[in-house]
């Protein structure tokens, strides 16, 4: 992949306050974004990824506050004859970028999808909560990429996010009541589960990887506050929690049975108390 840096004439060289990384900047609409004087931050510097590739399999964005991901294989009719290429670029490529963005601590990751993920309709209008029902390989790949982006938002806003906030003397941000419960596994247990499926799993089978250990988000925050801020005072712990408006959709639980993979010989080994202490010291 080649990159072309272009400074907009919105201020003196080196005076930019924010940087925006735009993928797919050579496209029609995307190039308009790159050239627009109406970008939300002024002055700014825009980096345009100009060469189409299997989307940045070695992408290493610098810590730019904003990443605008437009890049995609986007011709619906071609997706029927080149479905694997569309899957590779649109799904794998997006996964690579959102992973690199997380590692670089990018402030915002804006993913541009398509109305085709909702499928067709003659009489019904779709909104953001409508189910995805793609009817072609292109739309399917964009819907799958959306799932990867959303999964990073869900995954990285809990334990690592809370730890990072507390280590920087900032409050844990909790959506809604914080009574939503989640199941937690230590990373090495997850890796062992993957290896177990790799070695012993039967082709075509699905294996749930989970645990019966369940904890509310607010209790998780309090345990991390105890470990990092070294306090057992309920009032002091509350001072490190910031409750904000809940998201439009915030599932209360994700109950799941994992007996099937237990039959392959895998079970979690690391207890919660041990795992969370190790994680909080990373």
Automatic annotation (TrEMBL):
Alphabetized GO MF terms: catalytic activity
InterPro entries the record matches: NAD(P)-bd_dom, NAD(P)-bd_dom_sf
SUPFAM superfamilies xref list: NAD(P)-binding Rossmann-fold domains (SSF51735)
Organism in which the protein naturally occurs: Sciurus carolinensis
Domain NAD(P)-binding positions: 62-158
Record-given protein name: dTDP-D-glucose 4,6-dehydratase
């Amino acid at each position: 992949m080649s990159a072309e840096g272009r400074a907009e004439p919105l201020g003196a060289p080196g005076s930019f306050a924010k940087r925006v990384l735009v993928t797919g900047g050579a496209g029609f609409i995307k190039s308009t974004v790159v050239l627009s004087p109406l970008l939300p931050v002024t002055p700014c510097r825009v980096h345009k990824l100009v060469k189409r590739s299997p989307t940045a399999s070695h992408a290493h964005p610098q810590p730019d506050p904003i990443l605008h991901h437009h890049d995609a294989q986007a011709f619906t009719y071609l997706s029927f004859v080149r479905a694997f290429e569309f899957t590779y670029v649109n799904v794998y490529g997006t996964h690579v970028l959102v992973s690199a963005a997380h590692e670089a601590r990018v402030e915002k990751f804006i993913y541009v999808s398509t109305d085709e993920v909702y499928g067709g309709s003659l009489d019904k209008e779709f909104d953001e909560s409508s189910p995805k029902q793609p009817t072609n390989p292109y739309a399917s790949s964009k819907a799958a990429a959306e799932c990867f982006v959303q999964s990073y938002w869900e995954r990285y806003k809990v334990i690592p996010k809370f730890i990072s906030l507390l280590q920087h003397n900032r409050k844990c941000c909790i959506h809604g009541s914080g009574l939503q419960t989640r199941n937690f596994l230590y990373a090495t247990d997850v890796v062992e589960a993957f290896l177990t499926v790799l070695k012993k799993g039967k082709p075509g089978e699905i294996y749930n990887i989970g645990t019966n250990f369940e904890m509310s988000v607010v209790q998780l925050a309090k345990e991390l506050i105890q470990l990092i801020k070294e306090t057992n005072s309920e009032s002091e712990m509350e001072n490190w929690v910031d409750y904000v408006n809940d998201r439009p959709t915030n599932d209360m639980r994700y109950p799941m049975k994992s007996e099937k993979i237990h039959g392959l010989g895998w079970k979690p080994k690391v207890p919660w108390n041990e795992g969370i202490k190790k994680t909080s010291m990373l």
